[in-house]
Design goal:
about 170 residues; alpha/beta; Rossmann fold; about 35% helix; Serine aminopeptidase S33 domain-containing protein; AB_hydrolase_fold; AB_hydrolase_sf
């Protein structure tokens, strides 16, 4: 499978970093607006990068040439992207930490499983080892392709908020 290109945003680059923190937002979101404020509250000597999922934020859409994506596939792509970024910035050898929200939280689990030697820590935020059923994700993807993301807004709001809040 062809590894996707993941866009990397540098949120902080101190002159003398002590560690690297890699952050990834969840499905349907982007680095911008998700991690910007959080990065400001991390230790000042942290080199902070964030990666957008394929087809999100600044990352191009995934092109798998007919192959289905998997968490293993996304973990390999994420690890390779981070490795290339650290190599380019001359930061190999620093402790590396990863935090992911929702789908990227599940990715944090996969990274910890498959690439344990690379990461000093991983944080799983608002996530689980399994999120929904594959058929439900396929249906949602088809709905977005045919009707846009607005078609999912009501269902998402009912999952994320108390019943009266979306009406208000």
């Amino acid at each position: 499978m062809i590894a996707p290109k993941l866009a990397v945003t540098v949120l902080r680059a101190p002159a003398e970093p002590a560690r690297v923190v890699a952050l990834m937002p969840g499905l349907g979101t982007a680095v911008s607006g998700t991690w910007d404020t959080t990065a400001e509250h991390l230790a000042a000597d942290s080199h902070v990068i964030a990666l957008d999922l394929p087809g999100h934020g600044r990352s191009p859409a995934w092109d798998a040439a007919g192959e289905a994506p998997s968490m293993e596939w996304l973990a390999r792509a994420t690890d390779a992207t981070i490795e290339a970024e650290l190599e380019e910035a001359g930061l190999n050898g620093l402790p590396l930490h990863f935090a992911g929200i929702s789908l990227a939280g599940g990715l944090a689990l996969q990274l910890a499983l498959d690439h344990a030697g690379r990461f000093s820590s991983t944080a799983v935020i608002c996530s689980a080892a399994a999120i929904g059923q594959p058929s439900a994700w396929t249906q949602r993807a088809e709905a977005v392709r045919s009707d846009g993301t607005a078609s999912l807004a009501e269902g998402a709001a009912s999952r994320w908020f108390a019943p009266r809040l979306p009406r208000r």
